[in-house]
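Entry 14. Structure prediction run on the chain below.
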Amino acid sequence: MKNKYNVLQILAKVYGHTLKAVPFSGVSGILNYLVQGMFPAVTSLISARLFDTAYLLAQGENTLAAVILYGSLFVGTYAVVYILQFVSSITINAGIYERCTSYYNMKISEKAAMLPLLSFENADILNLQNRAQDCIKREVLSQIYMSSTVFITNGISVISTISVLASYNIWFIPISVISVLPYFIARIIRGKEFYLLKRAQAKHARRLDYLWGLFHKKQAVKEMRVMGFEEYLVQKWTETRDDVNEELWKQNIKDSKSMLFCDTLKIVGYGLSILLALFLAIKGYISIGVFGACIAAFKAMQEATKTFLIDLGNLPEKISFANDYFEFLDLPEEQNGNIKIDGIQNGVFLSNVSFIYPNSEKYALKDISLSIHKGEKIVVLGVNGSGKTTLSKILLNAYPPSQGEVRYDKVLSSDIDKNSLYTYLSVIPQNFVSYNLTLRENIAISNLEHLNDDSLIEHSLKLSGLPALLDEVGSLDQQLGREFGGKELSGGQWQKLAIARGIFRECELIVMDEPTSAIDPISETAILKKFLEIAHDKTA
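Output returned:
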């Protein structure tokens, strides 16, 4: 699949993000590698003079001072480089990798929070999000930043070392380049194959996470133990994992074979360079010192050229992964209207509303027209799968209609400022959330302005059928849920807490999606009667 961005655009985005997240580490890393890029050429020149002066000293034709001078320069050069490597390793690991990874994860989370809720019903978007998260988990963006920096550094190293070797003999250059060129070809081919494999495995990776997550959910664990199907789920997870790993294993074998061939050719090239240097020394074209420097320079050039070509070959693979990350960040965000409302004066009106979920061919709602006037109590009945929950999401402006119009008073849902609208809405969902927070937070989280209003919180507990819960747990600030050592509640109590949370929120329109399904019939009747009392002036 063609990438949305080209190489230069991706590099510009990566550098922009990195220098924004960690400016000091980003700049110091570049400077360090630029200095290291000159290291092989400089040490080759110094070592050649050092070997020559040492040879002349042994022949009685030189002074010890010259040997000490070049020896000190040689050691000093290594010392400077090692100090730079030590400092940069700290700034690179802690900054460019760890801090940047946190920054990139934060950007993904921020983006996910800005996407339309309907996006999370779209398998293609979920797969893209999975690939974007995989890009961060594998630190691809940080690798691109460092690889591109090292790429430039190795380019400088190769050019400078070539200049030194060329001054000795021109044949060193083709030997070194040909002996490492296959690394570049191998990385281009295997990198593309690996990206396409990971892209194809995105759906299976999400399935692995889902199946693994079931073993960490107490309700799922309880059911699988009682029903006895945990081994079946383990088998499904194992089969999926093995399929994924088998594909990766085959790819790794191909990659290893390619690298073995490249390493063999590199060794052959190094052997040829030694023979060439030895021939030149015997013929008197180069001195003993230059002979030693040639061998060291050739090896340094081989390593720099190898790294240069591998980084160049890896770049398309990393660019493809980075493209997934930036493509996710570029997904269209939820559109918010600019009309702010001051309450719902007349009601909610649906006109010929139809709705279809992404990746589906069947309408969940078809040609629905409905008027809900302010203060009315409406009950929607229908068999499972008839679209009741979908209708509630349309009413709450969580999902936009595929066709038709939804108006709050006379304002179209697409034109309304959702923040102003949500001020007047409340929901008690069928799939409620059990928050492992305090009792106070579990209720007042829906209206944080009254977080410390004990009397209002206790009133909501009473209305939702939990008048004795406060005495049972001991305090509004008691932690709930076993996960953090708090008081565990029954399923019915958790659902009543969700009802209390919905009641606690001051609103004009409240939507209840089968909120009493886990409550016994007697308590259900009492709660619904109470609900009708407190909702006498609300639309429900």
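The mean pLDDT is 81.
Filed with the rest of this week's runs.
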